[in-house]
Amino acid sequence: MTIDHLTAMSGRRPFLTALDEAVRERGGMSCGIVPRSGTPVLHVINTELPSRFTEISADFIGGAWVFTWAGTSDTISAANAPAIAAHAIARTVGAHLGLRP
Question: What sign results for the dihedral spanned by CA atoms 77, 82, 84, 87?
Fold first, then answer.
């Protein structure tokens, strides 16, 4: 998915959709965009161990969109680099490379 200038006007969802695609391509995880306190986040689980999960947000910080851990707001990566974020998410949930549900 290409992130263009319209994203600034449309908010988090285009970034989370791109991250959803990157997570699915990475394998070993399932995910979906869900609302949390009125804000969309990407809920990601390890397909082999569903108790291993995390939630990711897209936030506009310091003039740029970034992916953050929803629970702590710590930055994962720039929002225009969903593959980098997907790799970090896979490490966090303990997903193996190349496994697709």
Answer: positive
Coil, helix or strand at residue 81: coil
CB burial of 15-42 (b: ≥16 within 10 Å; e: otherwise) equals: bbbbbbebbbebbbbbbeeeeeeeebbb
**How many other C-beta atoms can be found within 10 angstroms of the C-beta atom of residue 51?**
7
Spatial distance between the Cα atoms of 47 and 31, rounded to a whole number of angstroms: 9
Compute the distance between CA of residue 37 and CA of residue 18 in angstroms, rounded to an integer: 22
Query: CA 4 to CA 40: how far, in whole Å?
Result: 19
Under a CB-based contact definition with an 8 Å cutoff, are residues 90 and 100 in contact? no
**Predicted structure pTM score:** 0.85
Strands (E), the chain: 29-36, 39-46, 53-61, 64-69, 75-78
Model confidence pLDDT, tens digit, residues 11-69: 899 999 999 999 999 999 999 999 999 899 999 999 999 999 999 999 999 999 999 99
